[in-house]
Write a structure and sequence with these properties.
Length: about 120
């Protein structure tokens, strides 16, 4: 299975995970020149718009999936999120989350880690 397919599976797993936790999916693959946000959701519990970066891997050969979200990536997400906030004036509270998915391609089982309200530094 190629990395693109694994990424697509991971994003679907992340959406299902969020829906089970009472998030509403607002959009996926939201793009501006500054970058793309995998999932934009609304956390009905905290009343926050959540910009979600999904990282999926099928092995730990290159480290945990979440380790691929570095400072530069967070800055890119932040810049893109600010475009969204400016475009949709109704965003009051917001945060950036990372969902890490380690998927076993043979059993189709996944380990999910959800990091809420990440920041730089």
């Amino acid at each position: 299975m190629n990395s693109r397919k694994i990424g697509q599976i991971g994003e679907q797993i992340a959406q299902d995970y969020l829906k089970k936790r009472h998030y509403s999916i607002l959009t996926t693959h939201w793009q501006k020149r500054s970058g793309e946000i995998d999932i934009i959701a609304f956390d009905n519990k905290t009343q926050e718009t959540v910009f979600v970066e999904v990282k999926t891997s099928s092995s730990l050969e290159f480290g945990f999936p979440e380790e691929k979200v570095n400072t530069a990536k967070i800055r890119k997400i932040l810049k893109t999120a600010l475009f969204y906030i400016n475009e949709y004036q109704n965003v009051k509270k917001w945060r950036i989350d990372v969902i890490s998915i380690l998927i076993n391609t043979s059993s189709q089982k996944a380990k999910i880690k959800h990091y809420k309200n990440i920041s730089i530094g």
